[in-house]
């Protein structure tokens, strides 16, 4: 009998990770559940994944998790819990995966499996940064004591506060990109290494093309790139003019060498082309398209350049063969810098 496995995802990184894991677990029926989305906004990934021909998921559901107004939030959260209980009772999953075990959808569902007498295994999918540098707020007095007991009083004693993301007692196994570099508090779990080759499988490439098509970007625009600049929020350019100058000089130097360069601005910028890169002959990719969707379609020699951020960690994780460089504004986060050095990501300070 084929068992059911549920994947709770709230970000596109979680989606790609869940898809890569589900594709490798052939003896299970995978069910995808989008969570933590605003109730009053359409979520474009939902219809895209629902109509993904090569999807490893038997079903795709969407449970909104961000609600406006206290009364509305309390009412909608009650509905959410009821829907989750129906889902778990229907599927009786042997495994539940999540990218953040602080999510109430995951913890409540694990609680329901206990009530049903199931022996469901909780899995943590690599979230990125917190997996390696830890989430310090989780161990603070505010989170570990005040927030912990407020949640227990609000939801029930089933709520468990993890000391860092992935550490909670609900989690038995963690699936991570770099097992030797994880936060030491995760070493108590069963550790499985993610297979990065799954991120360039035909199925995942198809997903990336579907997402790019939504933004009217042809995959051929990426296939011949020599370099991709993934740019930070525009505030960093105004706060540090030298950083802006170094970026533009780096891009102009590549263009003078005849290299094909693309850039993607931060999606929350107010100016669409604050560095006037289009005038320099740079191919501007839509700011809204996710970096994770772009990565699988880059050629194996494309150079990825960005700030000192989780974006470059994702690049090293999903496409370890790509050269990756960080142009760091100021001293930077020492935990990030230490991690980047261990991952052979070049860090250039400005």
Quick description:
This protein is α/β, with parallel strands linked by helices and 350 residues long. It folds into two domains: 3-199, 3-Layer(aba) Sandwich (Rossmann fold), CATH 3.40.50; 216-349, HAD superfamily/HAD-like (Rossmann fold, 3-Layer(aba) Sandwich). Helix content is 38%, strand content 20%.
List the SSEs and their pairings:
Blueprint: E1 3-9, H1 12-24, E2 28-38, H2 45-50, E3 57-66, H3 70-91, E4 95-98, H4 104-115, E5 121-125, H5 129-133, H6 141-154, E6 173-176, E7 190-193, H7 202-214, H8 220-223, E8 227-230, H9 235-239, H10 241-256, E9 261-264, E10 283-285, H11 291-294, E11 303-306, H12 310-318, E12 324-328, H13 334-342, E13 346-349
Parallel strand pairs: 1-2, 1-4, 2-3, 4-5, 5-6, 6-7, 8-9, 8-11, 9-10, 11-12, 12-13
């Amino acid at each position: 009998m084929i068992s059911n496995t549920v994947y709770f995802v709230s970000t596109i990184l979680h989606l790609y990770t869940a898809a890569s894991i589900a594709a490798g677990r052939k003896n299970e029926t995978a069910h995808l559940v989008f969570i933590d989305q605003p109730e009053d906004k359409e979520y474009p990934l939902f219809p895209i994944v629902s109509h993904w021909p090569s999807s490893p998921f038997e079903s795709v559901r969407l449970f909104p998790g961000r609600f406006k107004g206290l009364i509305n939030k309390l009412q909608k959260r009650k509905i959410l819990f009821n829907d989750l209980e129906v889902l778990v009772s229907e599927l009786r999953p042997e495994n539940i995966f999540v990218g953040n075990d602080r999510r109430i959808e995951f913890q409540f569902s694990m609680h329901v499996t206990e009530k049903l007498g199931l022996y469901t295994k909780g899995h943590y999918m690599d979230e990125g940064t917190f997996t390696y540098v830890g989430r310090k707020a989780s161990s603070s007095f505010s989170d570990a004591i005040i927030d912990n007991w407020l949640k227990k009083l609000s939801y029930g004693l089933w709520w468990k506060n993890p000391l860092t993301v992935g550490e909670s007692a609900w989690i038995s196994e963690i699936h991570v990109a770099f097992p030797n570099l994880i936060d030491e508090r995760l070493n108590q779990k069963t550790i499985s290494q993610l297979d990065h080759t799954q991120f360039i499988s035909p199925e995942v490439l198809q997903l990336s093309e579907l997402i790019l098509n939504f933004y009217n970007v042809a995959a051929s625009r990426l296939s011949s790139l020599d370099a991709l600049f993934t740019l930070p929020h525009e505030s960093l350019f105004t706060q540090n003019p030298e950083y802006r100058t170094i970026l533009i000089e780096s891009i102009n130097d590549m263009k003078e060498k005849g290299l094909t360069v693309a850039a993607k601005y931060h999606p929350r910028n107010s100016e669409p082309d604050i560095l006037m890169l289009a005038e320099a002959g740079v191919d501007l990719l839509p700011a809204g398209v996710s970096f994770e969707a772009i990565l699988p379609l880059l050629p194996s020699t494309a150079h990825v350049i960005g700030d000192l951020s989780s974006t470059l960690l994702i690049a090293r994780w999903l496409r370890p063969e790509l050269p990756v460089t960080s142009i760091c504004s100021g001293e930077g986060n020492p935990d990030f810098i230490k991690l980047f050095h261990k991952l052979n990501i070049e860090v250039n300070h400005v």
